[in-house]
Every structure is written in structure tokens, then in C-alpha cells.
Amino acid sequence: MGQDNCKPQPGDLIEIDRRVYQHWALYIGDGYVVHVTDQGAPFISGSIASVTTKKAKVKKELLTKVVGNDKWRVNNKYDRSRTPFPVKEIIRRAERQIGREVEYDVLWNNCEHFVTNLRYGVELCQQVENAAIGGGAAAGFIIAAGAALAGMALSRR
């Protein structure tokens, strides 16, 4: 397991490098993260809607299990522009979500949106914003949908 930061602190955002996208989790302490993961449902079908919209489950899992052999880092990148909740509040917000089924949409409600909402109270996703700004909304959609197809396991490990 490659990592850029040795010791995350409770409330930290964890960015995990997958092959064509980044998966995000929130570190809650004692080696555990809270994150959204797929339900194991098939993701390829006849309509584009099935690629971009689905249900996800909020899980508490060991960081090492979620990361597998991928590289990861602590990335509280939005701290420059947003004020995080106090750590106890972040953890409380995360723990209330464990076990819930939530809507998942690669563009508007993905794993980065989920964890930034827990930390800051606002859903942010630079991956999608960068794709949309870099090549227009249509290109952003295609990039995000391609990432979803390639990595729809979100974090099936």
C-alpha cells in the first residue's frame, strides 16, 4: 500500500488513487474510514442513466481494506476556502450515516461530495468541476461517465 501521509487524523479526507478516478473516504480514527460504496449491483445496461445514477451504501471499514494496493493521501484541500466542522462534529455526522443507503450519481452526488459534506457541510467535487471546466459540460460528463464505467466498484474491496 502506497501512502503519502503516514498518520491521518480523525476528520481528515482520504483521497485514494484508483486507475482512472479518485475514491474518497473520511477518516474517523482507530484505522477506520466512512465512505460510500456500491451495493454490488450491475452497472452496465442499455441506458446512460444506469451508469450515472444508482444507490450506494455508507460503510465503516478499515482504511487498509478500502485502499487495498492503491496509493492514498490525506487531502483536506478545501480547508483553504472552507471551514471544517469541529472534529467531534465531523465524526458524529459520519457515524450517523453508517449503514444508510444513499443516492449515488457520478456527477452530482459522488463519494467526494459525500465526504466533503461531512467535513464542511457543503458538497464539493473538484474532479467533476475540473472536467466540466476543462472541456465543457458534455466533455465533463463523458469523462465522469467513463470513470464510472471503469471504476464503478467505487470501493468494492
From TrEMBL:
The answer to whether keyword Transmembrane helix applies is: yes
InterPro entries documented for this protein: H-rev107_PLA/AT (IPR051496), LRAT_dom (IPR007053), Papain-like_cys_pep_sf (IPR038765)
Q: Which domain of life is it from?
A: Eukaryota
Asked if the record carries the keyword Acyltransferase, the reply is no
Which Gene Ontology molecular-function terms are recorded?
N-acyltransferase activity; phospholipase A1 activity; phospholipase A2 activity
| Entries under SUPFAM superfamilies matching the protein | Cysteine proteinases
Q: Name one Pfam family in it.
A: LRAT
Give an example GO cellular component term for this record. cytoplasm
Give all residue intervals belonging to the LRAT domain: 13-127
Q: Which keywords has UniProt assigned to this entry?
A: Hydrolase, Lipid metabolism, Membrane, Transferase, Transmembrane, Transmembrane helix
Instruction: Look up the record and give one Gene Ontology term from the biological process aspect.
Output: N-acylphosphatidylethanolamine metabolic process
By sequence similarity, the record places it as follows: Belongs to the H-rev107 family.
Q: Which PANTHER family match?
A: HRAS-LIKE SUPPRESSOR - RELATED, LRAT DOMAIN-CONTAINING PROTEIN
Any idea what this protein is called?
A: LRAT domain-containing protein
